Amino acid sequence: MFEIIGFIVAVLGIIAIAQVVKVYEASSKLKEKDGNDVTSKDNNTQGRLMLLFGILFMVSFVAMIIGWGDVMLDTPASEHGSDYDFLWDVSMAIIIVVFVIVQPILFYFAWKYRGTKGRKATYYEHNNRLELIWTVVPALTLAVLIIYGLTTWSNVMNPDNEDQEPIVVELYAQQFYWTARYAGEDNILGEANVRYIGGSNVVGINDADANGHNDIITRELVLPKGQPVLFKFRSQDIIHSAYFPHFRAQMNCVPGMVTQFQFTPTVSTEEMRRDPSIMQKVKRINEIRSAEGKESWEFDYVLLCNKICGAAHYNMQMPIRVVEQEEYDEWISEQKTFLESL
């Protein structure tokens, strides 16, 4: 109801503005004045408005950083997360510094050099030194960022597995939920295809493939701390995107193909719950939930879909538990294999 009222108000507002413009044009014609003429008064007004808007713009930027800076992601929970965060921090620091320097200058110049009667613009043809500076400096900065970014990307996507073999887990995406498939004792996933889906076989494992007999299908994702995990991603219907915000990982799930991503969890769920910044966020969230009459919330890692995949996209998520190795071994031993579930 409120959306409809808001839409009607917006439409009426646009119509009102259009009518005011028509009245202004008609009054200009009555005064035999060309509505396209720009006077010194117009220039002064526009110049002052640009200066005012620039000040408000910069103040709002600072206010947003102060107001929402504490809702940023906290300590990374994966081995590669610190490299990812450092690259992000360096990139944002450069962007913000340039933004804070350049934007005030642009708004100030719009006011300082506004059109004034009797003032003539200076014709400035060329300056080799300035051309060299504003070409070389950005080029070098971008070259450093790109080379460092490619190095970080290569390290993240091609981790060293010589010391420890990663466990293999498949994440199967479909509107609007996730299903996990663990590779079992042999650590090899069996062949799977959408054509084999049926009954308890929700991910389409080929029962003729012996490698899939000890695979474990679950709607819960439990990961051992300190153990590398190689994720394989498939999709049943459309493109989804597996997003692990606290682990600084994301990979698209594309129908008809298998994509993959590997990371090593470094902070257990219980350890993250004791993190001071997480505790502060949980407290603030629960204060809001309490005021709305909702149950209190406890922090959990979560797997989200980061593609707009349909009406229930917002609810496509799976909780993740990161536990110590002993607890993981106990949990995995209690799960039924694919062969046992048939």
UniProtKB/TrEMBL annotation:
Q: Which UniProt keywords apply?
A: Copper, Electron transport, Membrane, Metal-binding, Respiratory chain, Translocase, Transmembrane, Transmembrane helix, Transport
Q: How is the cofactor bound?
A: Binds a copper A center.
Q: Does the keyword Transferase apply?
A: no
The residues covered by the Cytochrome oxidase subunit II copper A binding domain are 164-334
Q: Which top EC class applies here?
A: translocase
Q: Which cofactor does it need?
A: Cu cation
Gene Ontology MF terms: copper ion binding; cytochrome-c oxidase activity
Entry's EC annotation = 7.1.1.9
Query: What is its subcellular localisation?
Result: Cell membrane; Membrane
Q: Does the keyword Mitochondrion apply?
A: no
Identify its membrane topology class. Multi-pass membrane protein
The record, for Pfam families, names: COX2 (PF00116), COX2_TM (PF02790)
Q: Where is the Cytochrome oxidase subunit II transmembrane region profile domain?
A: 65-160
**Superkingdom of source:** Bacteria
| One of the protein's GO biological processes | ATP synthesis coupled electron transport
Query: Which terms in the GO cellular component ontology are assigned?
Result: plasma membrane
Q: Which reaction does it catalyse?
A: 4 Fe(II)-[cytochrome c] + O2 + 8 H(+)(in) = 4 Fe(III)-[cytochrome c] + 2 H2O + 4 H(+)(out)
Q: What does this protein do?
A: Subunits I and II form the functional core of the enzyme complex. Electrons originating in cytochrome c are transferred via heme a and Cu(A) to the binuclear center formed by heme a3 and Cu(B).
Q: Which family does it belong to?
A: Belongs to the cytochrome c oxidase subunit 2 family.
Q: What is this protein called?
A: Cytochrome c oxidase subunit 2
Q: Which organism is it from?
A: Phaeocystidibacter luteus
